């Protein structure tokens, strides 16, 4: 599955003829650390060394810094990117990855700043919210936002809750099951189908479209558009209590949303369901099943679930890379270049999190960088959390003895979207 916000830009200029920028191109001399090139433009921002990304230790000019920097495309990275992330954070916090075709940003503070930096924009113009910038982005975001709060959010959440119990109960009689294929992938899509008021029998078809044509940020699937058209027409004529009716009767600047916008928004709900939430749920369940003591405490005190979910997103975010394009030079990053913000590396930055590789469901401040930062911050964050909470609660209620199948170990995969692709469990 492709990066939600585009893979490194085709046609983006390489920074030097050899690809790797000379070390001196880094914004500041090593003795003061690698300054934050994403500080908002100001009178002194371009010249003054800024704080070194909240690290205690300055980055020193080690000999390795002058050798070819490692690449995201190096063999083995997809299986285990964490050694590479460590090297990047420690020795190459801002570096051009020639094979990948993008500047890599890996430290927590830098990733956060880069995502919010107005000089770094969505990599390729398009029709989905994440592809838009400036005024159009704010207008479309304002259209989408009501779907994530109030009555619409309540409808989505009710769909999630019902679906979670149906799926969990189906597993209860089984000797062995795969939670990814039979729970994580279905829950977000089936919940969105239920909330939109679409027929339950069509869930499988919609699910298949989500997995082939839509990504985290929606996109367009002609078959889904054609499927939705008659429902949109019917809801316009006779609105009901479902989310699709709410979208059909919504007004922006006094006008109803056009059919294209309604079906695009429905696609966003379904596509997001099919991607990020499913991957995140898989990692969340893997983390909890790997830590039965912590799981037991959450079972006893469900109010702890939100923190456990946030911690899983920190340690194992479903989206490891979010891309941007520089509309003007940013420090050493040339205009037009692609910047890959490494959420997976940022979440394990020891300068921000103590013992960052450890899963600690009770960590005081796991942050929320997995949802992005700044103007594109994920509007579905609350829905995703509610999905995780209801999903876990349904599983723990229907399957009180849930545990790994004998000998099974989860193996996360993927460079851009990352999670275990199977979770074999004993439901009883
Ligand atoms: C655990 C689950 C999720 C994660 C980790 C996640 C992550 C993200 C991230 C990192 C971004 C920002 C991308 C950027 O900066 O360019 C984003 C944006 C977005 N997400 Fe999510 N997301 C999740 C669930 C959802 C859900 C459930 C929905 C909707 C049903 C959703 C809809 C969107 C939309 C529409 C945007 C674009 C916002 C904009 O560009 O203004 N996401 N998400």
UniProtKB/TrEMBL annotation:
Q: Which InterPro entries match?
A: Cyt_P450, Cyt_P450_B, Cyt_P450_sf
Where composition is biased (Low complexity), the residues are 10-26, 44-59
Matching entries from Gene3D superfamilies are given as: Cytochrome P450
Q: Give the family from UniProt.
A: Belongs to the cytochrome P450 family.
Give the region (Disordered) as residue ranges. Answer: 1-81
Question: GO: which molecular function terms?
Answer: heme binding; iron ion binding; monooxygenase activity; oxidoreductase activity, acting on paired donors, with incorporation or reduction of molecular oxygen
Q: Write the protein's name.
A: Cytochrome P450
Task: List the source organism.
Answer: Streptomyces albiflavescens
């Amino acid at each position: 599955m492709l990066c939600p916000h585009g893979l490194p830009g085709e046609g983006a200029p390489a920074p030097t003829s050899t690809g790797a920028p000379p070390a001196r191109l880094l914004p500041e001399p090593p003795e003061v650390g690698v300054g934050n090139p994403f500080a908002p433009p100001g009178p002194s921002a371009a010249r003054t060394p800024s704080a070194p990304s909240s690290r205690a230790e300055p980055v020193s000019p080690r000999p390795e810094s002058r050798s070819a920097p490692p690449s995201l495309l190096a063999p083995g990275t997809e299986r285990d990117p964490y050694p590479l992330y460590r090297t990047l954070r420690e020795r190459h916090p801002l570096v051009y990855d020639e094979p990948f075709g993008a500047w890599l940003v890996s430290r927590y503070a830098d990733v956060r700043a880069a995502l919010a930096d107005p000089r770094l924009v969505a990599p390729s113009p398009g029709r989905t919210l994440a592809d838009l910038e400036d005024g159009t982005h704010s207008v479309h975001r304002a259209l989408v936002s009501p779907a994530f709060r109030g009555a619409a959010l309540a409808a989505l959440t009710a769909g999630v809750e019902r679906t979670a119990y149906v799926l969990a109960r189906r597993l209860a009689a089984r000797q062995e099951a795969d939670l990814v294929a039979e729970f994580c992938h279905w829950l977000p899509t089936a919940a969105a189908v239920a909330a939109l008021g679409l027929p339950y029998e069509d869930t499988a078809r919609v699910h298949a479209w989500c997995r082939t044509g839509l990504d985290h940020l929606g996109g367009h699937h002609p078959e889904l558009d054609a499927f939705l058209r008659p429902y949109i027409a019917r809801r316009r004529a006779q609105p009901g209590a479902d989310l699709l009716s709410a979208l059909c009767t919504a007004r922006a600047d006094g006008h109803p949303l056009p059919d294209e916008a309604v079906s695009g928004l429905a696609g966003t709900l379904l596509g997001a369901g099919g991607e990020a939430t499913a991957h995140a749920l898989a990692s969340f369940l893997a983390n909890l099943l790997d830590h039965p003591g912590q799981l037991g405490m959450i079972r006893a005190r469900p109010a702890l679930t939100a923190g456990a979910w946030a911690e899983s997103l920190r340690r194992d975010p479903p989206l490891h890379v979010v891309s941007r394009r520089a509309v003007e030079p940013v420090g050493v990053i040339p205009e037009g270049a692609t910047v890959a913000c490494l959420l997976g590396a940022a979440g394990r930055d020891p300068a921000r999190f103590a013992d960052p590789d450890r899963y600690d469901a009770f960590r005081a401040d796991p942050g929320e960088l997995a949802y992005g930062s700044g103007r594109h911050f994920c509007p579905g964050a609350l829905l995703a959390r509610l999905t995780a909470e209801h999903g876990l609660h349904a599983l723990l209620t229907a399957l009180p003895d849930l545990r790994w199948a004998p000998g099974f170990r989860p193996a996360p995969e993927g460079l851009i979207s990352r999670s275990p692709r199977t979770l074999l469990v004993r439901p009883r």
